[in-house]
Amino acid sequence: MAENFKRSPNPTLGVEWEIGVIDPETRDLVPRAANLIDLVNARHPDIHFEREFLQNTVELVTGIHTSVPTAVAELSTHVAALREGADELGVRLWGSGSHPFSDFRKQPVSAKMTYAEIINRTQYWGQQMLIWGVHVHVGISHEDRVWPIINALMTKYPHLLALSASSPGWDGIDTGYASNRTMLYQQLPTAGMPYQFGSWAEWEQFQIDQATSGVTNHTGSMHFDIRPASKWGTIEVRVSDATSNLRELSALVALTHCLVVHYDRMIDRGETLPTLQPWHLAENKWRAARYGMEALVVTSRDTEERWVTQELDELVDTLLPLARELDCATELELVREFSQRGAGYARQRRLHDLRGDWKPVVDATCDEMTQLLPER
């Protein structure tokens, strides 16, 4: 069976942002997402929210955009409406890769048959998916470009993860990781790094094999860190932890948008896109999950290494002309702020070390939703 990729003539943009619902007294997660969505949608029926795997999660979903500023502006409207409803319900909004002390055994799954099937199949690991991420969709003009671009994007996996890493705490302890979410999520049988497919035909055969062997029967799809989204004609980048705020989200989306278009333009020019050996990709993923912005990453097939902060600074310089064309230079420049302010995991860890408690961390992270605002 051929998989119909709905081609996008332009590099359009869409963003999905998963947010948790917090009890302001206990600082724990609460299963009030459905109540919150119903309340907000009654007043703002045009806003698109999704119920997620857990009853404590709301997913904000944008429409199709041509630029980062317009996508972020839509999300700003969504957050404002959501905060209004949260205030009325007496809950707070939490953006992070995972919660530092909530007990996954006490967080109910949404009432959907496929979710129950996932839990039944994956058992202990599936029950632990108390995690949130950001998904960025970028339109691609033809399916033959999809896997060359995905394979090139994988060379920048640690860059995207280091910026967004925001899940150091789990089950009341500091895991020592910048993104414990990354380590948890890859335990699922349909999740993890994509294989380096050489063509669209290989991807189609893989899909047939997975369906025939029953791997995807319970989920309907593979949940690779970067994957084709054929229904929308996009590449979906799912590497990142959820950010706590729109300012950092805008930088992350700008970097993602620019990278995809950059590699697409390389194909136009007949240039060879970068790739790394699978073992280097796996090591880079682990290093970014472990060390975040302090990661030393493999940058070439000859096993050269550089600090991810150096890489990011030069990447911004390289992509700025394209970012100006795509109207996201302002947002891309915000990538430089991460080195000064520290990524989400570093801020959480500093406060936890200072106070010896995760509850002030939850408060401060919730506060960032209103404190770290977009540049425009």
UniProtKB/TrEMBL annotation:
Enzyme Commission numbers on file: 6.3.2.2
Name listed for the protein in its UniProt record: Putative glutamate--cysteine ligase 2
Any one GO molecular-function label of the UniProt entry: ATP binding
Catalytic activity: L-cysteine + L-glutamate + ATP = gamma-L-glutamyl-L-cysteine + ADP + phosphate + H(+)
GO biological process terms held by the UniProt record: modified amino acid biosynthetic process
Function of the molecule: ATP-dependent carboxylate-amine ligase which exhibits weak glutamate--cysteine ligase activity.
NCBIfam families on file: gshA_cyan_rel, PRK13517.1-2, PRK13517.1-4
Naturally occurring in which organism (per UniProt): Corynebacterium doosanense CAU 212 = DSM 45436
UniProt keyword list: ATP-binding, Ligase, Nucleotide-binding
Keyword Glycoprotein included in the entry's annotation: no
InterPro entries: GCL_type2/YbdK_subfam, GCS2, Gln_synth/guanido_kin_cat_dom, YbdK
